[in-house]
Design a protein that fits this description.
It is a single chain. The protein is built from 2 helices and 8 strands. The strands form 2 sheets. The chain has a 5-stranded mixed β-barrel. The protein has a 3-stranded antiparallel sheet with strand order 2-1-3, with no helix packed on it.
Amino acid sequence: MLRTDTREHTELADDDEAAAAVTAEAATPNAPAVFRELLFQRCLWCGTAAYRRSFCRACGATAFARERSEGSGVVVRRYGHVPHNTWFVAMDEGFNLLCQVTGSAPAAVAVGARVSVVRSVAPLGQGLLLVELSRPAPPLERWW
């Protein structure tokens, strides 16, 4: 996450050793809870949710607070070619992510499907977030 303001709220006190210990635990790739944990930013001025932004897209402020996401969202649209299985996902908290859907064929994923986060951190901090289908898209209804 980008650190955009020195007034960022943290759960730790001013103890630097405790902060270093928590950071070391979070960097361990063997902890499965860390993989599913998705942190996002919320603007301290207007309350807009964002993911890895240096300034708020609504008001332009640079003060953010970190919050933990529930990790579920809705597929909005495809990004790129079908074999890559990458999609834009609108998370329930109000921000959008570019994710890769795993555990299902690219043809099985459709707009409107519910997904949940499988891995939020790549092994070396590279790559896309991984999500899996939790509920398929509802059937399309005829509007005419």
